[in-house]
Every structure is written in structure tokens, then in C-alpha cells.
Amino acid sequence: MSKIKVTDTFLKGVKIIEPKAFGDNRGYFMESYNAEKLAEHDIHTKFIQDNQSLSSEAGIVRGLHYQLSPKCQTKLLRVLTGAILDVVVDIRKGSPTFGKWGGFILSEYNKRQLLIPKGFAHGFCTLTPNVNVFYKVDEFYAPEQDRGILWNDPAIGIDWPVTDPILSEKDTKHPLLKDAEINFEFGAENE
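-> C-alpha cells emitted (191 positions)
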């Protein structure tokens, strides 16, 4: 019997993964990643790199980021400390949910993970200070393929929990979705 719960979202391919934690008076233990357990849920991604970020303050927005095909990335993301609103935007041309976004609360307490497939822009907003985000990717970082979409694009209409976030210089200069370079097709292999 699987020790994880996998829930599909309205965005095809985006999944919430909830590993089972076993707790007692000392704390808890959980398998945060188990390829065999994920395969039971038809998730067969081969992850090749782990990344971690620290955001020191609440109200930091990182994103919306993606890499173009053929260097696009599937991500498996979780929060080690603190809490975030994790946001994904469907940027697969021809998708019935193109330009739609989903937001998911991930925290050290709910232990949820988010599987973000290729063809989605990704970002998050910190809800607490000292947020450690950890994520696996199935493709190495390729700066020449690195792209983004403006975090507050009105055509997407993300309901961020902040109006004046702390942003990197890079994240203030991304184009709107209508002007962004995108090479993802719904139903294609890069999905």
C-alpha cells in the first residue's frame, strides 16, 4: 500500500503529493521522495538535480519562471521551513487551461509537495519569514533557455497575497504572457 496521497488538480499534469508522516513525542519521520511509490501513481520522472532557496522575509515573490524546450524542467517542490503560496501558470499553446493559474499552500506543517510538469511557469510568494524551499528538477539549469513572465500580468490575474512584494531586479523585467517567448504545445512530448 502506498504511503503517499496524490491528487490531480484542474491543471492537467499538476499534482499535489502528500507523503505520510509518522510522528511521536520526538517529532516525525517521512519518506520525502520515493521513486517506487510515485511510480504507483504513474509518476516516472527521473530527477537529476536538487535546488534549495532561502527567502528571509514574508512577502517575497519569486517568479514566474520556466525554461524553454528542449531544456524545460519538471519540478517537484516542497517547503522545509515556513509557508508559501505556490503558483503555476499553464503556458502550453492549445491547452484548454492556457493562461490559467493555480495556487497551492505549501508549508512545513502540511508537508505537501507540488509536481509541476513541463509547460508551466512557476513562482511563489512567501507567507512567513525564513522560508526554505527545496525542489527537484529533471533537467539542468540552462541560462540561455531561462525565461519568465511578469508576476502581476493582469491578463493572468494571479491573486497574490501581497500588493507590493519584494522582487529581484530580474523578476521586475519579465514580459507579459502575450509577449513571452513560449515553445510548449499541449499534448506534445515536452508536456
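Helices lie at 35-39.
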